[in-house]
Amino acid sequence: RKKCLLCNNVLMIVAATIMGCSKISQSFEMILIGRFMCGVSLCVPLHHQYVGEISPRKLRGFANSTSSFFWTLGKAIGQISGQRELLGSRSLWPMLMASCGLPALVQLVTLPFFPESPPYLLMQKGDQEGCKKAIRQLWGEGQHQAEIDDIMKEKATMKNTKILSVLELVREPAFRWQLYMIVILTATIQLCGINAV
């Protein structure tokens, strides 16, 4: 989870750099490439997953809702910053386009100090000591055996569940309509311009 977020932040910084340099290069294609890279990035689902997994159970819903709050706040700040009086002017718009790299840079610098997700450590890596250490680092000292037991129950449940590959998922008739809906919704979100806003 953490490595994916770090790689994703590098992608966002590269996209921001490309868009920020588009005026100097006099290339609108660089804006298209940068926006495409921003659209391809997995920021939102990765953040929700990581934040949800590192939060204690009683704060998990609150933590996931704060992610959405900050996502919306970022859009509002982008709209305000895009006014002609601020960064929407003829000379400053490249800074506005490159501003998406600032949160990515902050996260790229701070994220290495956070531990990997405890459920990931226990369920995928099988590292019980690493899981306990990550829980202590995130939630402080105390009794966290109940949370570890919950993760173990989830792991036992996952053993009985068949995980499909992407190709198997596409071929499975039972999931076809759900897959069509997800693809259509995701494609239309990308086409509606919400990322540009």
From TrEMBL:
Membrane association type: Multi-pass membrane protein
The superkingdom listed in its UniProt entry is Eukaryota
Q: Which Pfam families does the annotation name?
A: Sugar_tr (PF00083)
Mind listing the GO biological process terms from this record?
A: D-glucose import; dehydroascorbic acid transport
Domain Major facilitator superfamily (MFS) profile intervals: 1-197
Respond yes or no to whether keyword Transmembrane helix is given for this record.
yes
A Gene Ontology cellular component where this protein is annotated is: plasma membrane
Q: Name one GO molecular function term.
A: D-glucose transmembrane transporter activity
Q: Which residues form the signal peptide?
A: 1-27
Q: Which UniProt keywords apply?
A: Membrane, Signal, Transmembrane, Transmembrane helix
**Protein location:** Membrane
List the InterPro entries. GLUT, MFS_dom, MFS_sugar_transport-like, MFS_trans_sf
Gene3D superfamilies (UniProt xref): MFS general substrate transporter like domains (1.20.1250.20)
The keyword Signal is annotated on this UniProt entry? yes
Name of this protein: GTR5 protein
